[in-house]
Amino acid sequence: MSGPHDPNAPQNDPGQVPPTAPPPYQAAPEPPASDAPGSDDRNIAMLTHLSGLLFSIVMPLVVWLINKDNPGKAYLNAQAKEALNFQITVLIAFVVSFILTFVLIGALLMPLVGLANLILCIVAAVKTANGEDFRYPFTLRLIN
Question: Is the dihedral of CA 37, 41, 47, 49 positive or negative?
Answer without folding.
Answer: negative
